[in-house]
Structures are given as C-alpha cells and as structure tokens.
C-alpha cells in the first residue's frame, strides 16, 4: 500500500496537475481508507502527525 501511495501522489501532481498540498492530503485519505482506518480517524491522525497545531 505504501508504494501505491507514492505512485498515486506522483500521478496526481504530474499527470493531473493537482496542487501538491491537496494531492498529499487526498493521498493520505485514500491510503488511510485502504489500510482500514475509520474515516473519522484519518483527519485526526493527519493533524496529530503534522507540524500544524
């Protein structure tokens, strides 16, 4: 799943021309759901692990 996340974010940035920050957040949500996380836990996990507080 980790390789998928890396490839997915590269495709979103290069091929789809998506903003880098939006692509990273979107990829985090997709990978979190793919790993079986609850949808409510994903934003909390992103906020907890980021430098933005």
Automatic annotation (TrEMBL):
One of its GO terms (molecular function) is gluconate transmembrane transporter activity. InterPro entries: Glcn_transporter (IPR003474). This is Transporter, gluconate:H+ symporter (GntP) family. GO terms for cellular component: membrane. Keywords: Membrane, Transmembrane, Transmembrane helix. Pfam families: GntP_permease. The chain crosses the membrane at residues 20-40.
């Amino acid at each position: 799943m980790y390789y998928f996340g890396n490839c997915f974010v590269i495709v979103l940035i290069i091929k789809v021309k998506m903003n880098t920050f939006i692509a990273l957040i979107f990829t985090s949500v997709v990978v979190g759901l793919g790993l079986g996380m609850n949808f409510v836990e994903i934003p909390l996990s992103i906020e907890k692990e980021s430098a933005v507080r």
